């Protein structure tokens, strides 16, 4: 049996997991941006779950959105309009990009989710920015307390922070398994592990992670050695593209995805004021492309490329994602300066034209094999 099947199974049953929690009489809150402070949701005894899109047509969302809007945001809204997120008691997003900012109103007025909340995230990391985001986090706690009738104490937050930090530490240990040649965990498996952490209570996921880490060295079906790749991009909420890449004989050994390393790379400090520590961690984490701190994001990516012995990189950007498309230019230059060949792909969230993408990836890999050999 595959060592990571439990995470894949959990991911495939994420709706059932949420519905079981709701049947216990406890709320479920969807979030749509990695800058939403999950610990505060968790401390309210709600289940925080990432809102995923789907790969089907977006007919319902297309009524409200232009064709040049982000296909991921459009697919998430379409899923909500179809009733796929009927179990959500709340939905929280942030102004991480223009699409998320504008689509918030559509979630508020056109879905049946009873409580919709917007967190204003600064795009800078000055002292005033941290103070502002701390106040936003305080307001968010008040909103959750008033909405769900559950007091969120400082001691409760500290316990939650410890649980989340444990999860982050275990995820970093999982990623460390990919430094080996060949890696002990494939790129597809790593993404399934991280994504599954976003749809279940963290203490449950921590138990699964500890079991994996204690037994994975003895697995009978490790990945085979191949060209070592880093994948860069924004949101990747399924594994289809990584599977195409690894089926071509490669190892995706590192990433700087919002749904990958950028989700868990830093801990929250356990200081005297847990809300301030949470705000500091989320605003100070590896920056997404909407933040005015491009150098820090580029440094994280290039440090990973070095640490994980990467031989080439693929940048995967969603069409019309201006933030990441601007960053792709600078990132391409960084890879080339480091002597790493790079392929830049633009695609829709549905991965329409997957065969054409496969052809481009295959040609890039064949070229790389000639260089590496």
Structure description:
The protein has 373 residues and is α/β, with parallel strands linked by helices. It folds into two domains: 11-152, Rossmann fold (3-Layer(aba) Sandwich); 156-372, Rossmann fold, CATH 3.40.50. It has helices at 5-12, 14-23, 38-43, 59-62, 71-82, 98-110, 127-148, 154-176, 187-196, 202-215, 240-247, 261-264, 274-284, 294-307, 322-337, 354-372, and strands at residues 28-31, 47-50, 90-94, 115-119, 227-233, 250-255, 312-318, 342-347. The strands form two sheets. The chain has a four-stranded parallel sheet, sandwiched between helices. The longest helix has 23 residues, at 154-176. It is globular and about 60 Å long. The relative contact order is 0.13. The model has no long low-confidence stretch (mean pLDDT 94).
Q: What's the arrangement of secondary structure elements?
A:
Blueprint: H1 5-12, H2 14-23, E1 28-31, H3 38-43, E2 47-50, H4 59-62, H5 71-82, E3 90-94, H6 98-110, E4 115-119, H7 127-148, H8 154-176, H9 187-196, H10 202-215, E5 227-233, H11 240-247, E6 250-255, H12 261-264, H13 274-284, H14 294-307, E7 312-318, H15 322-337, E8 342-347, H16 354-372
Parallel strand pairs: 1-2, 1-3, 3-4, 5-6, 5-7, 7-8
Please tag this protein with its features:
alpha/beta, Rossmann fold, 2 domains, four-stranded parallel β-sheet, 8 strands, globular
| General shape | globular
The number of helical segments is: 16
* Helix fraction bin: 40-55%
N-to-C terminal Cα separation, in Å? 34 Å
Question: Architecture of the largest domain, according to CATH?
Answer: 3-Layer(aba) Sandwich
């Amino acid at each position: 049996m595959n060592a990571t099947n439990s995470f894949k199974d959990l991911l495939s049953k994420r709706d059932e997991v949420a519905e079981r929690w709701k049947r216990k009489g406890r709320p479920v809150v969807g979030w749509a941006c990695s800058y939403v402070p999950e610990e505060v949701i968790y401390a309210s005894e709600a289940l925080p779950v990432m809102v995923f899109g789907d790969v089907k047509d977006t007919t319902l969302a297309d009524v409200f959105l232009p064709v040049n809007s982000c296909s991921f945001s459009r697919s998430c809204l379409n899923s909500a309009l179809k009733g796929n997120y009927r179990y959500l008691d709340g939905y929280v997003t942030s102004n991480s990009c223009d699409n998320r900012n504008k689509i918030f109103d559509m979630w508020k007025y056109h879905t049946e989710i009873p409580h919709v909340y917007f967190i204003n995230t600064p795009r800078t990391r000055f002292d005033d920015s941290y103070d502002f985001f701390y106040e936003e986090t305080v307001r968010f706690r008040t909103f959750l307390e008033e909405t769900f009738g559950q007091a969120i104490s400082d001691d409760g937050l500290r316990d939650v922070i410890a649980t989340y930090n444990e999860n982050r530490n275990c995820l970093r240990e999982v990623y460390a398994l990919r430094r080996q040649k060949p890696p002990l965990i494939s790129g597809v498996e790593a993404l399934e592990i991280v994504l599954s952490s976003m749809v279940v209570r963290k203490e449950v996921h921590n138990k699964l992670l500890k079991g994996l880490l204690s037994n994975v060295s003895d697995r009978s079906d490790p990945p085979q050695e191949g060209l070592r790749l880093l994948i860069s991009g924004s949101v990747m909420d399924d594994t289809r593209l990584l599977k195409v890449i690894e089926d071509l004989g490669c190892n995706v050994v590192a990433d700087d995805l919002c749904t990958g390393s950028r989700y868990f790379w830093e801990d929250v400090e356990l200081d005297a004021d847990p809300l301030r520590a949470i705000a500091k961690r989320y605003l100070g984490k590896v920056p997404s492309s909407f933040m005015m701190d491009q150098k820090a994001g580029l440094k994280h990516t290039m440090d990973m490329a070095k640490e994980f012995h990467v031989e080439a990189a693929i940048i995967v950007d969603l069409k019309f994602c201006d933030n990441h498309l601007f960053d792709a230019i600078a990132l391409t230059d960084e890879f080339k300066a480091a002597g790493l060949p790079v392929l830049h792909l633009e695609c829709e969230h549905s991965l329409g034209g997957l065969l054409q993408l496969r052809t481009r990836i295959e040609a890039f890999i064949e070229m790389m094999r000639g260089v590496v050999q």
